[in-house]
Amino acid sequence: MLKGFKDFLLRGNVVDLAVAVVMGTAFVAVVTAFTDGIITPLLAVFGGTSQLGLGFQLIADKPATFIAIGPIITAAIDFVIIAALLYFILVIPANRAKKLWGAPKETLTDNELLHQIRDLLAEGSAGGKHES
């Protein structure tokens, strides 16, 4: 049971997924800091004199009815920046590396290999017979 778990953990896909999650989390932290430090203050410029930021109040006397548009815009900008970074930093280089070095060839089972040998021998013997 532990050997199976060890094999599962050491498979390439699991390791790649773990690396992707860690890198994605790091990108989220960097991009969130960027949007909180730069984008949010820029959006506040358009928010007018409201202390609540960019948005609108449904009922004038109740702050709980404020619909905040700024956080939605900030989250959308976060998403676009993270998607662009992951695409240009991870996906494109990975695709280039795959083209450069090629995808690993799949390994055949013994039976599949024997079937291919049989078929090649059958083709060779059928094409090699000449009547004189």
From TrEMBL:
Please report the organism this UniProt entry assigns to the protein: Nocardia terrae
Could you tell me the membrane topology recorded for this protein?
A: Multi-pass membrane protein
Transmembrane intervals: 17-35, 42-60, 66-90
According to its UniProt entry, the function of this protein is described as: Channel that opens in response to stretch forces in the membrane lipid bilayer. May participate in the regulation of osmotic pressure changes within the cell.
Q: What's the subunit arrangement here?
A: Homopentamer.
Instruction: Report the domain of life of the source organism.
Output: Bacteria
Gene3D superfamilies the record matches = Large-conductance mechanosensitive channel, MscL, domain 1
Task: Please state which protein family the record places this protein in.
Answer: Belongs to the MscL family.
| Record's keyword terms, sorted | Cell membrane, Ion channel, Ion transport, Membrane, Transmembrane, Transmembrane helix, Transport
HAMAP family, per the entry: MscL
Tell me the protein's name: Large-conductance mechanosensitive channel
Where is this protein chiefly located? Answer: membrane
Asked if the keyword Amino-acid biosynthesis belongs to this entry, the reply reads no
A single MF term (Gene Ontology): mechanosensitive monoatomic ion channel activity
Q: Where in the cell is it found?
A: Cell membrane
Q: Which GO terms describe its cellular component?
A: plasma membrane
